[in-house]
């Protein structure tokens, strides 16, 4: 089954979430059936970056009117590409702001809907997405003859595990776009506020919850994170209180993370928190309540007072590092 993977660029590089979308695309077909798509006016560098990944081929969708992103330009160009490529079964995107802007319109042009913010793909394929702030999950199966449009949630699929097949062939597709078809005038690109942390790509995270009780006690956990070379994250109440910035919040209304190690300190394990971190490879929880729900997802649990356990752990980590 042929899969079109639409990559997104930022600052002249492919966004890392695009590689997570590649991991999702590879669940829908083998690498040789995956065609990576880069869009713009000068996509040579992006195409080379994509060709080194495990994809069958790379298509550069090139037009001067695509130099800057517009929803009209991108949906017209991709519509023509899909019509030009026979037998596309799936069109996969990272679930970014840009994709949310144009992908539903693109799907509509082909009489389809976008299955957005997918967190898992099972055999069938069956796509899972969260509903009602993560309280429920919904399963979706595509029916009908047109391509199935899917965008995948950041952090839900692990990028980089797949082996590259070498250098994929690169071809160029030139869509026909008239200036009058672009109904919007692009302004300055939206710049997200400068982030000091990228939790979605962190390998180790120490996350702190309301069990810490007081902002003044946070350095205790920060010290453990530093000793472990980990990023500091938090449950929502910690960020709501302004004890840590919102960019460090994990959960349904924060970040979705999938580090190798997630150490939850004084976090109860509410569903809204779990949906953001349960994809972590190894979860360790410290909680004084043996019945805390966090232990249901933890690989290792320490039942104890964090004010005793955390300093001891920090000392042990420092001692182990010499
Ligand atoms: C629409 C919506 C969206 C939400 N989005 C998010 C989200 O994105 N992320 C998020 O985290 N939450 C989110 N929440 C909030 C969520 O429901 C929980 O309220 C929150 O996760 C609880 O945070 P907590 O575990 O830090 O605190 P608590 O639930 O209060 O848990 C504190 C834990 O610390 C333990 N503890 C206390 N003292 C100690 C000690 N001395 N040593 C060891 N353990 C101790 C306690 O046993 C307890 O388990 C959302 C809620 C709603 C309604």
Residues in helix, %: 25-40%
- Rg, rounded, reads 22 Å
How many helices?
A: 9
The pLDDT mean sits at 92
Explain what you see.
The protein is built from 9 helices and 16 strands. The chain is of the alpha/beta class and 322 residues long. The strands form 3 sheets. The chain has a 9-stranded mixed sheet with strand order 9-8-7-10-6-1-4-5-11, with helices on both faces. Helix 2 links the parallel strand 4 and strand 5. Helix 3 packs across helix 4 and helix 5 packs parallel to helix 9. The longest helix has 16 residues. The protein is elongated. The protein starts with a strand and ends with a helix. The chain binds flavin-adenine dinucleotide. Flavin-adenine dinucleotide binds next to helix 6, helix 7, strand 15 and helix 9.
In short:
With 322 residues, the protein is of the alpha/beta class. The protein is built from 9 helices and 16 strands.
How are the elements arranged and paired?
Elements: E1 2-6, E2 9-10, E3 13-14, H1 16-25, E4 34-40, H2 44-51, E5 57-62, H3 71-84, E6 88-94, H4 97-109, E7 114-122, E8 126-131, E9 136-140, E10 148-152, E11 169-173, E12 204-208, H5 218-228, E13 231-234, H6 236-240, E14 261-265, H7 271-277, E15 282-287, H8 294-297, E16 300-303, H9 306-321
Parallel strand pairs: 1-4, 1-6, 4-5, 5-11, 6-10, 7-10, 12-13, 12-14, 14-15, 15-16
Antiparallel strand pairs: 2-3, 7-8, 8-9
Residues 133, 209-211, 235-237, 249-254, 266-268, 270, 272-273, 276, 286-289, 292, 305-307 line the site of flavin-adenine dinucleotide.
């Amino acid at each position: 089954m042929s899969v079109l993977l639409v990559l997104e660029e930022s600052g002249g590089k492919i966004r890392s979430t695009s590689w997570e979308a590649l991991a999702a695309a590879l669940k829908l077909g083998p690498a040789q059936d995956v065609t990576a798509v880069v869009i713009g006016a000068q996509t040579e560098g992006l195409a080379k970056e994509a060709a080194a990944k495990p994809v069958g081929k790379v298509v550069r969708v090139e037009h001067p009117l695509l130099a800057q992103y517009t929803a009209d330009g991108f949906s017209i160009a991709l519509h023509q590409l899909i019509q030009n490529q026979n037998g596309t079964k799936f069109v996969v995107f990272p679930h970014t702001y840009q994709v949310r802007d144009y992908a539903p319109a693109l799907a509509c042009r082909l009489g389809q809907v976008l299955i957005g913010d997918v967190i898992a793909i099972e055999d069938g394929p069956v796509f899972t997405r969260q509903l009602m702030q993560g309280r429920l999950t919904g399963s979706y199966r595509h029916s009908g003859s047109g391509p199935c449009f899917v965008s995948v949630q950041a952090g839900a699929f692990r990028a980089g595990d797949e082996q590259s097949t070498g250098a994929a062939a690169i071809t160029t597709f030139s869509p026909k776009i008239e200036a009058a078809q672009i109904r919007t005038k692009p302004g300055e690109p939206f710049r997200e506020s400068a982030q000091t942390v990228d939790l979605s790509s962190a390998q180790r995270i120490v996350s702190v919850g309301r069990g810490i009780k007081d902002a003044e006690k946070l350095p205790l956990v920060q010290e453990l994170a530093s000793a472990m070379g980990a990023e500091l994250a938090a449950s929502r109440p910690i960020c709501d209180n302004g004890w840590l910035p919102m960019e460090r919040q994990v959960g349904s209304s924060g970040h979705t993370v999938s580090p190798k190690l997630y150490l939850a300190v004084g976090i109860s394990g509410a569903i809204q928190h779990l949906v953001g971190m349960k994809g972590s490879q190894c979860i360790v929880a410290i909680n004084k309540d043996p019945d805390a729900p966090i232990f249901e997802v933890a690989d290792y649990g320490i039942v104890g007072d964090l004010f005793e356990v955390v300093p001891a752990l920090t000392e042990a980590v420092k001692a182990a590092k010499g």
